[in-house]
Design goal:
The chain is α/β, with parallel strands linked by helices. It has two domains: 95 residues, Rossmann fold (3-Layer(aba) Sandwich); 130 residues, Rossmann fold (3-Layer(aba) Sandwich), CATH 3.40.50. Helix content is 41%, strand content 16%. The protein is built from ten helices and eleven strands. It has a six-stranded parallel β-sheet with strand order 1-11-8-7-5-6. Strands 3-2-4 form a three-stranded parallel β-sheet, with helices on both faces. The radius of gyration is 19 Å and the shape is globular. It starts with a strand and ends in a 10-residue tail after the last helix. Bound molecules: guanine (GUN). Guanine binds next to strand 4.
């Protein structure tokens, strides 16, 4: 038996289509486009690629993209002043500061300067708190995308045993909160977890977000479980001088045991940008005082 592939690329494409329709509706009703500002500090190569694709996807969805680049040695005051100006700008509905920041800048200070109502990354403590107590806010894009894929495949997640491997603020912790809100029994495993394989083997749903290539082995997976692989790791390919992308799960092994699994690439990755656009559109509707039916996207 081979696990069903969960096609995040196809789901993300459909989501982006629905967002574009709603973005056009927003523009028709308000006379302006929903706006997303992306701030990049420094020259990090991967971040430059991400920021470019975020800007392109924003424009493709019929929204306005505002890109701001600061040099790697930009001071904290300069960055905070830029965020302050974006907070005050009525054309900007969502603000994203690309991480990681250069080492001399404190990420928490920077994130806490973004208005929580424009924090489309959902990283501000106010939004983390809203998620924890079940109030409407912004939820980090990658875990929200994972829940969308899970619900699309499984329907109700109620009562299921879910194991999240990884406890980052960006993925692991919000992922656990979202699964709890779906009435899963949630375990958060991490680098100090004892008998990790045994813990994972109990799970109906496994979410791997540790950043270690192919760490989760096939015999850790309960037969028929649904596996969501958040990892994107570049490793050497068989051919000399070439690299390839792998997840945190040993895909070949897991396929023989799991019921369904997200591939890398083409699984969770494409969902992150699609959900960012979703969050930006939700921000625009909220900022304009207009209702957006939650089930629409
Ligand atoms: N760097 C890697 N992923 C992300 C993300 O989702 N948001 C931001 N702001 N930076 C990132």
């Amino acid at each position: 038996m081979s696990a069903e592939r969960i096609d995040g690329k196809a789901y993300a494409l459909g989501l982006r289509g629905r967002i574009a329709t709603l973005a056009a509706d927003f523009t028709a009703r308000t006379g302006r486009k929903a706006g997303l500002a992306v701030v990049l500090v420094g020259e990090d190569a991967a971040s430059q690629v991400y920021v470019r694709s975020k800007g392109k996807a924003t424009v493709e969805a019929g929204m306005a993209s505002f890109e701001h680049r600061l040099p790697a040695d930009a001071g904290e005051a300069e960055l905070l002043a830029l965020i302050g100006a974006l907070n005050a700008d009525p054309a900007v509905d969502g603000i994203l500061v690309q991480l990681p920041l250069p080492a001399h800048l404190d990420e928490q200070t920077v994130i806490s300067t973004i208005s929580p109502d424009k924090d489309v990354d959902g990283f501000h403590v106010t939004n983390a708190g809203r998620l924890a107590v079940g109030q409407p806010g912004f939820v980090p894009c990658t875990p929200l995308g994972c829940v969308m894929l899970l619900k699309d495949r499984l329907g109700s997640l109620s009562g299921m045993d879910a194991v999240v491997i990884g406890r980052s603020n960006i993925v692991g912790k919000p992922m656990a909160q979202l699964l709890l809100a779906e009435s899963c029994t949630v375990t958060i495993a991490h680098s100090r977890t004892r008998d990790l394989a045994d813990v994972v083997r109990r799970a109906d749903i496994v979410v791997a977000a540790v950043g270690r290539p192919e760490m989760v082995k096939g015999d850790w997976i309960k037969p028929g479980a649904t596996v969501i692989d958040v990892g994107i790791n570049r490793v050497d390919a068989a051919e000399p001088g070439k690299t390839r992308l792998v997840g945190d799960v040993d895909f070949g092994e897991a396929c023989a045991v799991a019921g369904a699994i997200t591939p890398v690439p083409g699984g969770v990755g494409p969902m992150t940008i699609a959900v960012l656009l979703r969050n930006a559109l939700v921000a625009a509707f909220r900022n304009a005082g207009m209702a957006l039916p939650a089930e629409a996207i």
